[in-house]
Amino acid sequence: MDVLSVVGGGIAGLALAARLDPRRFQVTVHERREEPPPVETSLAMWPEAQRALDAVGILPAVRTAGSGFGGMVLRDGSGNVLLNAGAPGVIGVSRAALLRLLDAAVPAPVARAYGTVAALPRSDLVVGADGVHSIVRRSVWGERARARLSPYLALRGIIEEPVPSGGGGEYWGRGQLFGITPAARGRTYWYASYRSGLGPGGINVEEALDLTRARFSGRAADVDHVLAAATPRGTLAQRVWTVPYPGSYQRDGAVLVGDAAHGMTPNLGRGACEALIDAVTLADLLNTRPLPEALRAYNRRRLLRSQALRVASSAMARLALAENAQPLRDGLLRLAGRRGGRPGAG
């Protein structure tokens, strides 16, 4: 029986632990905290990620806990519709609910170790599922693999009321973005992003909210309404970090999954989806092939696909947060909308 250490008990780590065959692997999940994140946020589960959830055995429960996503209306900063983007079959689910369901799916033989991982565990395989600041990636891939700070601040939160009638969608202004979408139990999930010097760590959420209200004030009534209802207690404010291209997802008895492998800007809404796909792909290969062969096959299947999405997400961030090119961008989007253009589903 191979000994396998999963560093990180988030979406990728729990999905991997839930899918691995306990008859083949002695698994320990190393997690820094024992409780789910205090601020609730929402995730879009695209069809490929839903297939991964089905493989783990929790897709029906995710559907029950989640909400309909529908399409996405893309607007300019004042709320005028630029185009309607299709999102067929997408499910919205809160991160906290998804983590609870994944945690419950982990087999009883899997051991849990709580606390900060200062040095890599001794195992036949160490899985880096520990996010953009992965100690596994830094320890094995070196200092050049450290996470990179983007110029963008991201705020996310939930308000305890439904989406304003006719006000949902994503608002692309000059150098700033705001999103409004349904959340479970008739609530609203919102998010905002723009360039900011706050942080990178220890960001005061109340200060970030005040800054966000000032930046978006008076442009779109529904954005003003959502921000007026937002509270520091229900808001998360973070600088956006990304992960450089590592060259390979497997090296020297270690393998990377999720944000540790391909942490990207949130603009495509694919980070959690790709983490789930990584985890199920790796688990299925490990369950059925010798360890070295499984790792090589995982690298072939996931490296180029997920890195392409990382690059595309960065390009989308530059487009959505354009400043000098914003009038041209909006004109092209209006033209696409009049012609019935719909961005493809990922």
From TrEMBL:
Assigned keywords, A-Z: Monooxygenase, Oxidoreductase
Coiled coil start-end: none
Pfam families per record: FAD_binding_3, NAD_binding_8
Domain FAD-binding: 122-309
Stored InterPro entries: FAD-bd (IPR002938), FAD-dep_Monooxygenase_BioMet (IPR050493), FAD/NAD-bd_sf (IPR036188)
Annotated protein name in UniProt: 2-polyprenyl-6-methoxyphenol hydroxylase-like FAD-dependent oxidoreductase
